[in-house]
Amino acid sequence: MSGMMRAVIFEAGGPENLAIGSVPIPQLREKEVLLKVYATAINRADTLQRKGVYPPPQGESDILGLEAVGVVDKLGAGCGSSWKVGDRVMALLPGGGNAEYVASREELLMPIPKNMKFTQAAAVPEVWLTAFQLLFTVGKVKKTDTVLIHAGGSGVGTAAVQLCRQFGARALVVAGSTEKINFAKSLGAEEGFNYKEAAFEPKVLKHTEGKGVNLILDCVGGSFFDQNINSIAAEGTWVIYGLMGGSTINTGDHLAKILRKRITIVGSTLRARSVQYKESLVADFTQRALPHFSSGEFRPIIDTVMTLDSIKEAHALMESNKTTGKIVLQVQEESPKEEL
Ligand SMILES: NC(=O)c1ccc[n+]([C@@H]2O[C@H](COP(=O)([O-])OP(=O)(O)OC[C@H]3O[C@@H](n4cnc5c(N)ncnc54)[C@H](OP(=O)(O)O)[C@@H]3O)[C@@H](O)[C@H]2O)c1
Fold it and tell me: What pLDDT score was predicted for residue 82?
């Protein structure tokens, strides 16, 4: 180790402002583990951070990247868990993942499921933990529920559909193309609606015999607000976790509808949660969801694998809205010895 590493750096602006720079390898704080990163991925939060509108939580790395997978390189002071140098792990990070090395809290590491390559595992932490948290921790989904999943072809959406199928809840998706809807159906969605062709609200109501859906996973916000409020069933839960369609809503009798239907509206962000909250989420996910990857019942959905050097293209591709599933960045080649 030279003390320096390659990492994604940027100046606020468009994807063209991204570059690979040389920065110091992170110093470990108490209870942190140093990972040699083999693969990482990008998320919408990175594109917002790049634009200068979503700074990292205080005290955390300002390098982009909310997830990374690789090999444990070093254990910091106070590490008490069973991780050891050489373990193959996935990390949920508050930042810093788009680099050759990253420091992670030991509690936020997960073992890479058996038979999974680094480039596949890099598609798991952020979107699967988000979908798992939205459905179970925040949305308190029940097996009898019908769930409306917006951006059904997204990283979070494709994970949520698979989690619903395995759990036994009915999943309906909204997406912007027939291809994305058909793909979501292949993962277990019962039906899908193309919001670019027609309003989804009447179709959701028809499909649910006028009752509406019990849970909405909403990463669109403003532009779908009116349709969501009409699509939700009495006593439904509406989880707002993204604002891709804006943060303002039309005037209207929204409050009357919320009151009459006794709706619960809840906001959710994962990155800013406490280490204790994330630790418990990671432990729950490791126990309840990870075994289903080894069995093949769950699969990480990957649109494209690129190298870290293609970071500009990766951000531009995500912002084109053309992807289905994740954009993964390979950081180091996986040698056959290290594989599986
Ligand atoms: N709160 C949290 O803790 C948390 C954590 C992770 C992610 N998120 C949020 O989850 C969302 C999905 O993230 P991701 O990484 O899974 O995204 P992604 O894979 O990049 O997919 C996003 C998809 O959303 C659709 N979309 C974009 N703008 C839209 C609009 N205005 N109206 C309707 N659909 C639109 C596009 O597909 P089509 O239009 O073709 O359907 C796009 O491909 C983002 O909003 C992200 O910020 C939140």
Answer: 87
